Amino acid sequence: MDFPFYTQQMTAENWEMEQFPDFETADHWTFRSCGIASLRMVLDGFGKQAERHGPMIEKGVAAGAYKDGVGWIHWGLAHMAEEYGIYAEALRGKTPEDLKKALDMGSPCIISVAPFFMGGQPNPYAGGIYGKGGHLIPCFGYETEDGELTAFLVHHTSAFQEKNKPEWWVPIEDFLASFGGNFIRFSAEPFSAEDK
After folding, report:
1. Would you say residue 45 has pLDDT above 90?
2. Domains of the chain by range and CATH?
3. Which of 80, 156, 158, 159 would suit a FRET pair with 166, their CA atoms being 20 to 30 Å apart?
């Protein structure tokens, strides 16, 4: 599949194109729209032509897929995908090998990782240390060497221009430090009992 890249950074130049009612609303969602940017990338990869950021966020909030202070809810994003005819399942407590298996089955995924893959490193924006998870991005490939995972391929959307990284091959060490063990897998076909 060909996955487009969408930034979550809303600016004075793009907020109208992304169909927000005003710049203030768009700016409010800049740091809160990773889940919607990721879902749009996946849906468009399936050829489903999702709406722009503004209407998609409005739809997601109305459906209960977003909670203040928490962020985008995995099952809520999965239900949103189903409205477009795409099967989706939110999975928790999974390993990189589980993610690899989902990708092998042809399922692109939205994964929960530390922003910028900086798990375990100091957070210059909020203080403290980056934990695992908290930021949603699509993942659609991996590399192995001698049967061992060496990297995952992601589109890293960000509120910061310099942190937007389409087609980023993330080394497994950074991935392991940042992956929260939760992801949503997507498919054009129903998941079989063996897939669960």
Report:
1. yes
2. 23-188 (3.90.70.30)
3. 80
